[in-house]
Amino acid sequence: MRRFQVSMNKVLFPTGKTKILLLIFIALLLPAIYYTVYITGGIKYVYSHSMYIPILLAGIIFGLKGGAIVALVAGILLGPFIPINTISGEQQLIINWIFRVIIFLIVGILSGYSFDVLRKKIARITELLTHHPDTEIPNSRSLSFDINNDTTIVISIIVNNYNNIICSLGKEIFVALMKAVYLRIKDDLKKAQVVQSDSSKIWVCLNDDMESFDPERISKLLNAVFILGDIPMYLDFSMGIACCSENESRQKSFQQADIAAYHAKQNHLQYSIFDESQMAVRNNNLELLGAFPRALETNQTELYYQPKINLKTREIVGIEALIRWNHPVRGFMLPQEFIKAVEETQLINPMTAWVLNNGLLMIKEFQKMDMETSVSINISAKNLQNPRFLNQAIGIIKEQNVACNLIEFEMTESSLIYDPEKTKTLLQKIRDYHIALSIDDFGTGYSSLAYLRRFPINAVKIDKFFIQQMNTDLGVNHIVRAAIDLAHNLNLTVIAEGVENFETEQSLIKMNCDMAQGYYYTRPLNGTDIISWYQGYNTKARKGMRFQ
Fold first, then answer.
1. Could you tell me the strand order of the sheet in which 201-206 lies?
2. pTM as predicted
């Protein structure tokens, strides 16, 4: 099929050199046919019909004008310059050869016109197939028509903030941004082949030496602000780079570049160079995702709980539910081994429902022992984007007959930015049910507390990266103190994650932090152990004892 497509392209869209050769061939064919007709006895014999060959050929290759000109020349050659019978010398009637010229012209014009129309249609179809419908940038299909076999490096660029741009500024702005990205790369890398492989991804094909290639050059191009009209635009991107091996197909190189780009995205890197370990991780993730639905159904998954401590009263004010996976082959798996992969798929929705349901069962176990606590459940961006999320969550809560004010949803700040207005409306509906909302890992995203205040949240959890450095780094200490003060000014509760020692706890108390969570109090515990710990903690806390 590919060879047939290439052959058709050569016939319908010949290059300049090919056109010259075909023109010479037709120019030689015309007198050759004239000579054949003459020596075979004249125009009365069948050999004169051979003249349709150069006429049709001219119409196919050179279109209407070419077909008409060759038809006219052919009609004249087989007109007054050749008798009906060369032996007797009988000449043609004028009406006879004029009629033949007219027929030749009709054939030449019709064939030329038909192939002109066909060429335009094919060119339009090719353009539609090989260019993105919105941006009109060449797409990945264009590579099959115009692949550069000298390509040695393939780059995949993923635009991470495309949803945020579309939701906040509209699709037209995002289309303009993608065009600007394309043009900026093309202007800087003159010989590069650049295509838009999907709505938010660009491929770049380079003929360069990997040792001399500088990824920072493209990073600087993309990090520079894009001005669209009067709007300055920032591009949040991840870039993957792969080498093209002679033993591998180009498609595999593109796949490897994509894998490297997603690796960069997951690890918060601007670019990553592909290696086989990334492929192993991808295959591992696919295997885990395939097994995960059954894990939920067969209780291979289990909840562990980590308490939150009120730093003023030393009381337990809640427990955070954290999923674990007892894999039948790999053994006990922590969230970091599978959660990222799950969050990228719709499997996050049944997982969140499972965690919520089992977290509520834990609350009921506490209540049976006359112990009251709330439970925090982590929710993701895909949960917030799921139009059925809230109804499903409320359905589970009603089924378990647990008070909504004993439930807290934790989300990262990055999960709020995909569609801020829609997310704000959803969060307000959640708050209307008296479910608390908190921002997890605050400080690791792009938002300020002032921005987050747009959303109806109750609390922020300062990321453990800051908490664990605050006593050794004065600058970090100032950041934590400022975040606590600002949050309190906004009437938000502050929770410190990652508290691992007495000194950190005391520093947080002096900063007037509200709550703490971390290994200093306990590591995450399963359902049975958290109840035992809870009972022992109350005695310890009343005596003001250290926990380590």
1. 193-198, 201-206, 153-159, 237-243, 271-273
2. 0.64
